Write a sequence for this structure.
């Protein structure tokens, strides 16, 4: 176990809706990264937060946004859901060891 | 942009045998990390082994070892004495060091089956 948790495990949403996914990092880990893993693909970097500020972003549109809180929890918000947003969403926390510890992911299905 | 290529979508190995998974990458950086992650059906991404590019010695973790060829930009994973629990998706990943907390760049993965 990595000590990183995510909720919910599974989620079904309708196109055009909004969704919030949650992640709880290991205590003391100031950095959290979010990845999108489409079926049969490797994870793709969405963005990273360090001490509650966005610290880098991949090739994802602004409707993907995030928050990080002082209690080592974080959120990924996706507005105006599209069918292609269906994927496994992974969060990974890091505390300075140059290693990222992943959560079990949230499986999002958009219909 | 950095890219990671895993040319074997699927591999299989007999239990107790040895298997090698291939990975190549493209980068203009001289300092970076390389990783192999395992993703079983439970979906949890688990770090298997890590290699720092400045180290010439290949990393080893129990039954898992790598063959790191920096000039060739090749980073293969060897699993010895394969066990049923090794069956999973395996992802090779690259991480640039310059710039601080940089993201992981993943390959598309190799699905490993272990035959009893």
């Amino acid at each position: 176990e990595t000590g990183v948790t995510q909720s919910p495990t599974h989620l079904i949403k309708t196109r055009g809706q909004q969704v919030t996914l949650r992640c709880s990092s290991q205590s003391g880990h100031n950095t959290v990264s979010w990845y999108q893993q489409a079926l049969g693909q490797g994870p793709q970097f969405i963005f990273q937060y360090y001490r509650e500020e966005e610290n880098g972003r991949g090739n994802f549109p602004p409707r993907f946004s995030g928050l990080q809180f002082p209690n080592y929890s974080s959120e990924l918000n996706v507005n105006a859901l599209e069918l292609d947003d269906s994927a496994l969403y992974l969060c990974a926390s890091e505390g300075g060891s140059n290693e990222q510890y992943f959560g079990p992911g949230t499986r999002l299905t958009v219909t | 942009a950095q890219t990671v290529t895993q040319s074997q979508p699927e591999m299989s190995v007999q239990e107790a045998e040895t298997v090698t998974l291939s990975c190549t990458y493209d980068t203009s950086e001289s300092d970076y990390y390389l990783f192999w992650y395992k993703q079983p059906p439970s979906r949890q991404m688990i770090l298997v082994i890590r290699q720092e590019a400045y180290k010439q010695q290949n990393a080893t973790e129990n039954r898992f070892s790598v063959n790191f060829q920096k000039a060739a930009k090749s980073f293969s994973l060897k699993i010895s004495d394969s066990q049923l629990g090794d069956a999973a998706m395996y992802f090779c990943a690259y991480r640039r060091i310059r710039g601080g907390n940089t993201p992981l760049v993943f390959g598309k993965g190799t699905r490993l089956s272990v035959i009893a």
About this structure: The mean pLDDT of chain A is 94. The first strand of chain A starts at residue 5 and ends at 7. The interface with chain B takes residues 2, 31, 33, 35, 40-45, 48, 50, 55-56, 58, 88, 90, 92, 94, 98-105, 107 of chain A (CB under 8 Å).
